Amino acid sequence: MLPAVVKLCCGISYPHLRSMSGLQRTAAAVIGQEITHMKHWAQIKQCMGRYADDLLAEPRAELAVSEDQLFYMQHGKEALRKAVGMLEDREGWKVEIKEGNGDVISSKVIPGTGKVFRLEAVLEASLDDLYDLLFVRVEDMHQWNPSIQHIKVLKRAGPETILTHEVSAETAGNLIGQRDFLSVRHSCKQKSCIYLGGAAIRLESFPPQPGFVRAEDGPTCIIIKPLDEDTTKSSFTWLLNMDVKGWLPKSIVNQGLPRAQLDFTKHLRKRLGLR
Asked: Which of 15, 136, 193, 221 is the residue whose CA sits 20 to 30 A from 120?
């Protein structure tokens, strides 16, 4: 209802936009941006399955959802919502890297979050292929991505949400070094699009492991859409938002993170080529 009311008000006031002060124009722009975010989030909620109708609702008895599961699901969905909002804001992105194959990495500094990186690529794979590799069989990722030592699914909260522990590998050229991650991952799958979101989580029952620096992801997400002209290819957009912790200079981190995105995409393409 709110978007409709705001649209009506904006329509009535359109002839007066040119006479608006700077503050008024900023307010109008913010309202328009909020409408866009609400629309997009409504689309995401449609594909979140039976658990997404109400994030705060009490679980129905027949679903047998525990308090822990509900907490993980809410954490994953909120991370996805925030990450998609970051990608939707098209202002302020600066191109960092352009590859010959068309891959582009851009960056942006977001107040309260820091520097984030957006990779845009086209992959020769269907939505189902990518969903299977990146979410369903996430524990097998170390088999084709040498930058990962292992990923273990610790808990499952319904079919769309998992709690994982990941350890990065000690590989040559890794500017950031070995890290471990404790994250909630949430998936949102429909015919026309796939959203994979996630964020770090802190649990007393799973403290940082000896010998590792625990980095923190998120909110972060991957958006996968089929190309209109070729359903065997997909557009792949990845928002990387990470606090690597430790004492590394920002200059090293800002070199290492986009390089990690390019390396991941290279290994993903190689794995897709084996099908």
From this structure: 136
